[in-house]
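Dear colleague,

Thank you for sharing your sequence with our group. We've completed the structure prediction you requested, and as agreed, I am returning the results in plain text so they can be pasted directly into your records. Please verify that the sequence below matches your submission; if there's any discrepancy, let me know and we will rerun it promptly.
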Amino acid sequence: MDVPFLGEKTQLISEERKVEAMLRLNRIEGQIKGIKKMVQEGRPCVQILTQLASVQEALRGLTKLMMRNYLENCATEAIRSKAGKEIYDELMDVIFKFAR
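Please find the predicted structure tokens below.
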């Protein structure tokens, strides 16, 4: 079930979290570029897999940051505006996407 994204009606991301998210994204981008170079150079698979694991962990950290922002800003504001059922559905949809 697709639920209208209530977060679009509220603050998308706090400025503080935006800075932190961009730092994390830049780091992840650098890691990805490093992995591409490793593949091009024919580096050992175990080294590449180790770097891939690092990227996955970095993405998990970014996901936690964004989820915290969503819960503290977007969802909270929607609940205050009496959109409880809609925000519940949206939140469940987001949770199920990450529970796969």
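Summary note from our side: The CA atoms of residues 21 and 62 lie 7 Å apart.

Kind regards,
the structure core
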